[in-house]
Request: fold
Amino acid sequence: MIKGSNVTLGALSGNVGSVIVSLGWGSPTGEGDADVSVLMLNADGKVRGDTDFYFYNNPVAADGSVQLLGKTPTADGNEDRISFDLTAVPSEVDRIVVAASRYEGARFGELEGVRLSLADGAGDDLLRFAIDEADSVSAIIFGELYRRGGEWKFRAVGQGYDAGLAGLATDFGVDIDDDAAAVEAQNGTATDDQGDQGNRTPPATVDEPASTAPLVAVPAPRTSDDDIEKKKPTARPRTAKKKVTLPKAAKKTLAENESWKVARLFPVSALKSDRDREMRATSVLLSVMAQVPEFGRRLTAAFGAPAGRMETFTEVTLPHGDTPRRPDGVIRVERAGKLWTALVETKTNGNSLKAEQVQAYMDIAARRGYEAVITLSNDVALEGSPLVDVKIDGRRKHKVALWHLSWAEVAHQAQMLIRHEGVGNAAHAWLLQELLHYLQHDNSGCHGFQNMGPAWVPVRNGIDDETLCHGDRRALEVVESWERLIRQVCLGLGGELGQKVLPVQRAKRGTDPEARRLRLADQLCRDGRLQAELRIEGTPGILAISADLRTSRLRTSIEIPAPEQGYPLSWAKRLVRRLAEAPADLHVETLVEGETGGPRGTLERLRPEPADMLPKDSGIRITGFRLSLLKGMGSSRGNAESGFIRSVDDAVHRFYTTVVVHLDRVSTR
Reply:
């Protein structure tokens, strides 16, 4: 679409009762980011109340009409997704504005590939809108959904906004008066010479009837900054219900001795076969999803399911030719008299999904009107690379979406709720705790990605004896396994910290996932290294991981920028004080401008003499410091104590808990 154009959603798809809007962007450094926001407006172009403003601190509508699904890593940055249940939008809401804003003085002109896309309930992309003129604005209205003649339409707005999130929200009638908003408003007005609000002009409309007054996509500017200062301070919108989390400290046990085991809701001792594990895992997960609405909604919202009453079933029988099929489970969600349904196929204990089996369920779902087929296994899906290939009959009017969940992602979502965000009541928190205990038990079979694959040993041997050739398909298989492992490490660390942990994909490496993996495979053949980068919310830099298969060593490192003020010796002393509890074998390297590297040494040697971190030539500018830990890596392909997977996971956790946690935190807003 082009700026100002509009389209009727019903003309693009017959499945637009619920849609997913994605906002994406990237940056040359891989670090640029923005926050999405949604405003539901009445016919006057204003919100009905502050709760009609959805952003990072108010992400879900009580009626399920809006849910911010969070960020998904892409090849060149991030993509923020928003789920809209258009059937649940109140009748008094005339239009829905979708926007994004940057913070701490950042501007959209610093980002690349700013874009919006919209998909229907089956996950099929319906439209795309690229914003090419972001320039120096700190907020952008990407587009808006609005009603016309009983149908929903979308308009591509692409209008820059100078005043940031606070100014945008205030102009639509939201009261914003907290510290973060005040700082943002001050940054916007200071940068734009007393707030040049005249830059915001409504975009032209296209294809609207002459008798219909065009919608004004951007509100009129505020009358003066004094009016804003007179507004009565109000609390930032929050979720309505009080959240309950389980206490971190364990209660004193009444057991006579340590051999007594606490009675569990979901026992695992009786599981003897893979079939037993699959049946128990499916039943346990689906039952908790139905009983804990926050958890069930979190797992299904990304698949287009509405917010509503959920029922789950196991071991159902469905006709399929001469041989009936028995999927592992069925999920049904009812909302406003409409039914959303999905078939569930589960694998545990490292067993892989079977293409023939998934294909049969896709065919059954298409014939019976199911919206989705959801697969669960220990494997982790890769961007742009489905776990199983299925054929879609284009002649069928009803389309079925195929989605995948890893058991690691299920455990991650349970951790985020019970340890950090909280759920509606203590009983729900206890249920999630029992689910998490079950998933993490050795006998459950739900261990996440746990095998580097059959190519691991031949590739390692080929690197050792220098016989691994460029273009060897087995190198690509190892790279794909490495990417799965890194995604799982992000899920595990993010669940423990309660923070976003995402793999970084640099824009210079290209946007095509397959082409990027081929380049990494060539690098593996050339120098025997696997490399990855993680962005952890709130940390001052990117956590880098390098696995050198030639030397069997893992390196975890982070680069932190030099302070903008003060003296180099003060920087060095302060860094050493910060790292007082870090390992003595931590490597510290000073990064200097125009040089390959500055002074370096172990923390043990630098502690008594921080001045040794400074270049001998005082005229050389210090740009930052690199902190690194080295450790031996496991050799086997599995998840045993001596395995490669366990050693990577342990290395990342050790580096974060002993080094990164002591560094200065940075604001994420």
Summary: Confidence is low (pLDDT under 50) at residues 178-242.
